[in-house]
Amino acid sequence: MAFAVKDCALAAIATGVRAHNLRELRDNLLTVHPGSIYYHFWGGLLRPAFENREYMNDFASWSWKAHGLHDEALAERLSVIDPTDFEDLEELRQELVEVTSDRLEESEKLRLLHADRPFMFIRSQIVIFDTYAAIEHPSRFPMAAPMMTPSSFFFHFIDARSRTKDRVDDFREWLMEYGDEFRPLIDRLASLDPYFIPLAELKEKIVGIFAGYFAGETV
Amino acid sequence: MSGLLEAYAKVAGEDTISHLRQLSSTLGGMKVVHVNSTREGGGVAEILCRLVPLQQELGFDARWEVITGGKEFYQCTKGFHNALQGNPVVVPERLLREFEKTNLENAERMKDVLEDADAVFIHDPQPAPLIKYFPNRKGKWIWRCHIDASQPYRPVWNYLKRFVAQYDTSVFSLAEFSQSLPHPQYIIPPSIDPLSEKNIGLPEDEVSRVAETFGLDRSRPLIVQISRFDRFKDPIGVIRAYRLAKKFAPGLQLVLAGGGATDDPEGGIVLGEAQEAAGGDSDAHVLLLPADAHRTINALQRAADIVVQKSIREGFGLTVTEGLWKGKPVIGGNTGGIKIQVIDHHTGFLVTTPEGAALRIRYLLLNRERREEMGRKAREYVRRNYLLTRQLREHLTLIAGLHHGSEYRIGMG
Questions:
Q1: B374 with B394, same domain?
Q2: Nearest C-alpha of chain B: how many angstroms from A105?
Q3: Has residue B2 got a pLDDT over 70?
């Protein structure tokens, strides 16, 4: 039950699609490439960033920020959408369309408001590759993980939630193969919210959780 | 690990290099060629002179070719450059004929190299028509635009688009620069090379020696703008900002320095305008530096208290990245790639007018601690996001993407 370490690289591709107001955002969400939904939900964690994110996806950020729509209610509702609640990107797209449509119904002002800067729909292309490294047993994780790149953590801890059966990260899925042996460790990993933390910090936290567990720390 | 990769690992981190090696291994030693229009001067040449050796060390058969042309060719391409940045430039038919003729001649010279390559990166408009002379090309062709083409002058863009549309993909530095084209448009910001003469750490005595050479007094504050002498870099606006700030900081000194580039015939005129504007002020230094004065530029940036890049249009602004990397707060024009590098109130300040620049200069000169704090943030921001290794990774991702169609998830190796 060795854990095969993979890594990934994300490319950003302009779609040429822009939204200047909420109606255009909603209308474009109906048809935009699914890679764009992925990019604006998860890609932010791999992109250059200076500070921790205030909102967990780009749609929410644009709804609120200075050059966007200045609509706090919409930003909050979009921000609370957890992409792991949805079967696939198409279901997630539907949720986004519903939230933006509801807000359009509610606010006459928003129907007329133009943002200073348009929302630029970008889509992602994710390239996944083997590192040919493997971790033989969970107890070896604290020694092996520091060699893994932040993008490898992105792939196993964040991207995994969009592709695994139970919408969990790859580390938990691996630990579950051992039955209940590592249940407390699984629970500790489950309590780590990855969406606001820069990747390098996320990596440190995950390694810390494994190291603490195997050093016998209690929660 | 080879020498060059080992050296980068020390700056960018072992994990970054390991990531590059693994990604490269899935691409199996492809033949990659870069083509631009100048071997030295300007950001593109600076990137290529290190990117290509790095690709070679990662196992690619990588080459860098340069197209050559006469005076009229460069006159024409300078017109394109200005037009892509929004100036209404009418390029005479005679120059367009020369432009295409020059590209045909270069295509014939580079035929064997380009026809067989797996990936050909054509940088900026100068060599863009090459593609039409390679109907039997084997690999993927990529047009890499380094210019702020967010609002191009349409007649010129429509002319260039005839060539660009034939490529397999294009690459822009920012999403705002992308255009309506019939192929995918990747977004890849450029980067700086931390090991180049322009960015490597320098001993303090060397910085002082360079400052002394130009008559700068290191006990007094200094602001520096490094850029080509180009109206889009607003050298006159920088001089005005300096004059406004100097009223409140009488010891203030200014350096406006730049090299010439072989593909920029307007540089001399703009240099003359800047010299005239600065005339009679012994604290305002307008310096034309040789194209290879990288270490001098490095020292001037390190001698500065504040780096300025008050451009009114900008592709990406690698001089901003260089200033940030040296731990300096940057006062930058609120345009193009400067907007994603100068994080307002964190790594520097974004301004739109000489008056705004003067205000921020005065504030930073008064607040040493704030300057140092911004400088620390600035260096770390560049280390994480704008070093050459990040750009190389994105080039490799693009190559992988192009060879695997349009799926959004690609499994390799």
A1: no
A2: 30
A3: no
* ipTM for the assembly: 0.86
Q: Look at residue B28 and tell me if it is in a domain.
A: yes
Q: What region does B215 belong to: left with phi over 0, alpha with psi -120 to 50, or beta?
A: left
Tens-place pLDDT, residues B272-327: 999 999 988 999 999 999 988 999 999 999 999 999 999 998 888 999 999 999 99
The answer on B221 and B183 residing in a single domain is: no
Asked whether residue B196 is domain-assigned, the answer is no
> Residue B231 falls within a domain, yes or no?
yes
Kindly determine whether residue B23 and residue A123, on different chains, have CB atoms separated by under 8 Å: no
Mean per-residue pLDDT, A158-163: 90
Query: Long-range CB contacts (< 8 A, 24+ apart) of B20-23?
Result: B20/B58, B20/B389, B20/B392, B20/B393, B20/B396, B21/B58, B22/A7, B22/A129, B22/A130, B22/A131, B22/A132, B22/B413, B23/A7, B23/A9, B23/A127, B23/A129, B23/B393, B23/B396, B23/B397, B23/B400, B23/B412
Lowest mean pLDDT among A34-38, A156-160, B145-149: B145-149
Chain B residues within an 8 Å CB radius of A51: 343, 346
Tell which of A93, A129, A148, A201 to mutate to test the B interface (max B CBs under 10 Å).
A129
A47 or B249, higher pLDDT: B249
- Range of weakest confidence among A198-202, B170-174, B210-214, B391-395: A198-202
The reply to whether B151 touches chain A by the CB within 8 Å rule is no
Question: Is the same domain home to B186 and B286?
Answer: no
Residue among B15, B184, B411 whose CB faces A128 most closely: B411
Is residue B411 in a domain?
no
Say whether A16 and B18 touch across the interface (CB within 8 A).
no
Global pTM value: 0.86
Residue B175 sits at the chain A interface (C-beta within 8 Å): yes
With 90 as the cut, is the pLDDT of residue A116 above it?
Answer: no
Q: Are residues B170 and B308 in the same domain?
A: no
- Distance between CA atoms of A169 and B103, rounded to whole angstroms? 52
Please give the mean pLDDT across all residues of chain A. 90
In a shared domain, residues B236 and B380: yes
- Give the structural domain span for B104: 3-191+387-402
Pairs of residues, one from chain A and one from chain B, whose beta carbons lie less than 8 Å apart: 101
Residues of chain A found within 8 Å of residue B401, distances taken between Cβ atoms: 11, 125, 127
Do B102 and B87 lie in a common domain?
yes
Closest to A132 in 3D by CA, of B23, B401, B29, B27: B23
Query: Which residue of chain B is at minimal alpha-carbon distance from A133?
Result: B22
Task: Count helices and strands (H / E) in chain A.
Answer: 11, 2
**Residue B308 shares a structural domain with residue B397:** no
Rounded to a whole number of angstroms, the distance from the CA of B122 to the nearest CA of chain A is: 18
Shared domain for B116 and B31, answered yes or no, is yes
Give mean pLDDT, residues B348-355. Answer: 97
Domains held by chain B: number: 2
User: Which of B210, B79, B228, B232 lies closest to B148 in space, CA to CA?
Assistant: B232
- The predicted-structure confidence for B122-175, as pLDDT tens digits, reads as follows 999 999 999 999 999 999 999 999 988 888 999 999 999 999 999 999 999 988
Q: What is the pLDDT of residue B130?
A: 98
Domain with residue B298: its CATH number is: 3.40.50.2000
Between CA A75 and CA A96 the distance in angstroms is 12
Confidence band of B60 (pLDDT split at 50, 70, 90): very high
